[in-house]
Amino acid sequence: MYKRRTVDCFDVMGLYNGQWEVVTSADNRREARALLKDYQENEGGAYKIKKYREKIIAGDYVPAH
Length: 65
Known about the structure:
By secondary structure, this protein is an alpha+beta fold. Helix content is 22%, strand content 43%. The chain has one domain (6-55).
């Protein structure tokens, strides 16, 4: 049986002074898209979602964010 060794993580990033910086993080795409929409409506400016994967170590996942 297949056991997944990674977990998907999502960062909402904003463009500040010409560089992309992490504004907030989410555990799933739906939550990340809701946060992205909030930032775009309230703050203005350029925002994006960056997806990355973190390894699950010894069966326990501890999110870095």
